[in-house]
Each structure stands twice: as structure tokens, then as C-alpha cells.
Design a protein that fits this description.
Number of strands: 7
Bound molecules: adenosine-5'-diphosphate, magnesium ion
CATH class: Alpha Beta
CATH architecture: 3-Layer(aba) Sandwich
Largest sheet: 7 strands, mixed
CATH topology: Rossmann fold
Helix content: 10-25%
Number of domains: 1
Strand order of the largest sheet: 1-7-6-2-5-4-3
Length: 143
């Protein structure tokens, strides 16, 4: 799926919300895009639609931040937000304990700056590329 000529932040949020509606537990999502492309904007709208009630803030310093998904159903579900920007290698993400969340049946993982940790992405990772062009953006979702 490719969205072209995205002009507003609101449109990016709508795309993130629509994507969140069909996403299955256990999914790992890799977000690619330059600084300011809109990865965190996407992540926040995505998390909100999943049912995260707490404020989602970019985990730039902690690298990994987890949130409870409260969608009205009983089972515990977790949204795991990763910002790999400051990492020098995928090993660092393993050291912080990412494996606990990857493909875990109750967890949805979203990784910003996923190109930094390509080596640890599961085969079935959903890839989302956000391109920031001169006066618009493009979002490509590959499942
Ligand atoms: N169409 C758009 N989609 C996403 N963000 C947009 C858009 N238009 C403008 N912006 C702005 O661009 C910035 C994107 O920042 P952010 O999501 O933190 O980027 P990233 O996480 O990719 O570095 C925000 O300040 C946001 O308001
Ligand atoms: Mg960001």
C-alpha cells in the first residue's frame, strides 16, 4: 500500500489509525525515514488507535518504552515503542532486552530508525517507509 501526496499531519495520523485497525498481536513494525519525516507522529496515532491511554513520548533516551493496551478486552496486551536512533549496533538493542518483546504473542512492537537494527528484525516484519519530499510526504506500507 502506498500513500502519495500527504500534505498534513492529520493525514499521516489517519493512515496510522487505519493501519492499526488490522494489525495483529505479535507484529513487529519497522519505520524508516529521515529525521522529521513523521515516524513519531505515526507511532503516536497508531498507539492511540490500538488502545494505549498513556501519552506516548519518543523513547529517545530509554530506547525502549512499553505501554499497556487498554482496548476493553481482558487480556494484557503491550505496545512496545523503540527508537533506535542513538544505537550504534543491533547488539545494543539485544543487550537492553528487545528479544523479550519481538514476536511475543501479546505484544506489538514498533521500531523507529529500524535501519539501525535490521539484523534483528523478524522475517515477517511490516516495513513502513516515510518519505519527506519538498512539500508533501509519501508513506509505503509493505506487509
Ligand atoms: N504530513 C505530516 N506527517 C507527519 N508529520 C508532519 C507532517 N507535516 C508536518 N509534520 C511535522 O513534522 C514533524 C515530524 O516529527 P516526528 O514525527 O518527530 O519525526 P521523526 O520521528 O520521523 O523524526 C512534526 O513536527 C510534525 O508536526
Ligand atoms: Mg521520532
Amino acid at each position: 500500500m502506498k500513500y502519495l501526496n500527504i500534505k498534513t499531519e492529520k493525514e499521516t495520523k489517519e493512515i496510522a489509525k487505519a493501519f492499526a485497525k488490522d494489525v495483529k498481536l505479535g507484529t513487529v513494525i519497522a519505520l524508516f525515514g529521515d529525521l522529521g519525516a513523521g515516524k513519531t507522529v505515526f507511532a503516536k496515532a497508531f498507539a492511540k488507535e490500538l488502545g494505549v491511554k498513556d501519552e506516548v513520548i519518543s523513547p529517545t533516551f530509554n530506547i525502549i518504552k512499553t505501554y499497556q493496551i487498554k482496548d476493553g478486552k481482558k487480556n494484557d496486551k503491550v505496545f512496545c515503542h523503540v527508537d533506535a536512533y542513538r544505537l550504534n549496533s543491533y547488539q545494543e538493542l539485544l543487550e537492553i532486552g528487545i528479544e523479550e518483546y519481538l514476536n511475543y504473542r501479546n505484544t506489538i512492537v514498533l521500531i523507529e530508525w529500524a535501519d539501525k537494527v535490521k539484523e534483528i528484525l523478524p522475517k515477517d516484519t511490516v516495513q513502513i517507509k516515510i518519505k519527506h519530499l519538498e512539500d508533501n510526504r509519501e508513506i509505503e506500507i509493505k506487509e
